[in-house]
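ESCALATION

Customer reports they have been waiting on this structure for their group meeting. Please prioritize. Original submission:
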Amino acid sequence: MPVPLWLAPKLALYLAMGDQGISNSELARRLGLHERVIRRMLDPEHATKAGKIQAALAALGKQMTVEVRDAP
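Update from on-call: job pushed to the front of the queue and completed.
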């Protein structure tokens, strides 16, 4: 099932954190942020700038890309 474009980066961050066993607090420490900022990044109701999510993913060894394809 497709995930909305605005939600996909948050979901990717959540899944990467889970795969690596990284807590909100640990990610916040790595990024030099308060833990509540990480909670907001993961909150589907909170608008988060793409740059912040990209930085969080990079701290987990991930890279965010967008792909556009021709429709079938």
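Sent to customer with the following note: The mean pLDDT is 94.
Escalation resolved.
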